[in-house]
From TrEMBL:
Protein name as catalogued: Uncharacterized protein
Organism: Sporocytophaga myxococcoides
Length: 117
């Protein structure tokens, strides 16, 4: 269920104490199981998004190569500005997935610390 992390060759005491709490508290154990289930289900959505995001990046890469082939420099510059604007709007619309993962992990660490206090 919960991996015990190693720190300088020794067992991580916070993880060890949290594991003891999990063994003693059925509600906490259920919360941990729900978190694990959420992460598994959430991963499916992340995989789908990453597939979409990969296609989007591929599209902009291909479009940029097409724009470079346009001989009219004024038209080429206008299209580049349009593409830049489109990419900016897309990046604002979607949160950084890695930041969301790190926030989730941080909240879980905070829970461990607070429960052990």
């Amino acid at each position: 269920m919960l991996a015990v992390f190693k720190s300088r060759g020794k067992t991580n005491l916070v993880s060890e104490l949290y594991q003891e709490l999990l063994e003693k508290d059925p509600e906490l154990r259920k919360l941990e199981e729900n978190k694990d289930e959420f992460n598994k289900g959430h991963q499916n959505y992340l995989n789908a998004f990453e597939g979409y995001d990969g296609k989007s990046r591929e599209y902009y890469r291909d479009v940029n190569s097409f724009v470079k082939a346009i001989k009219d420099s004024i038209l080429s510059n206008k299209i580049e500005l349009l593409l830049l604007h489109m990419k900016k709007n897309i990046s604002i619309s979607y949160p950084n997935i890695e930041v969301c993962r790190m926030n989730s992990q941080s909240i879980h660490r905070q829970l461990k610390i607070v429960l052990l206090y």
